[in-house]
Amino acid sequence: MRYVAVFDTNILISALLSTSGNPFGCLALAKIGQVESVTCQEILDEFAQKLVLKFKFSQEMAQAAVEEIRSCSRFVEISATLKAVPDDADDDMVVECAIVGNATHIVTGDKHLLTLGKYQDIEIVKATEFVALLSQS
Prior knowledge:
The chain has 7 helices and 6 strands, in the order βααβααβαβαββα. Helix 2 packs across helix 7.
């Protein structure tokens, strides 16, 4: 089975800040082509915004991080109209990106997304679960 994953903003940030955790492992698998990463402008914008505002990255450093994610991901456009996550509308873009990108998984640490467990045929899992799943295949 070919795994296609949307990595939520918190996974992208965790992967950037620590090279020893499962989020980094997820992105490393995408970089070597073992997993296909799918993203959209809305996720990349949120990623850059959090890096600048919360982690005090310069605009240039944040943009370099965005470009690194973009370079190992398939880019899709979303309409930003899907309403899938009742408790956090900001997470709707992640689900819509997964649908448009025909993802098999959403990898996240976000409790609102994890509570869904699954959306249509898309599994919603933590980075630890995703890495374990890949090590079995």
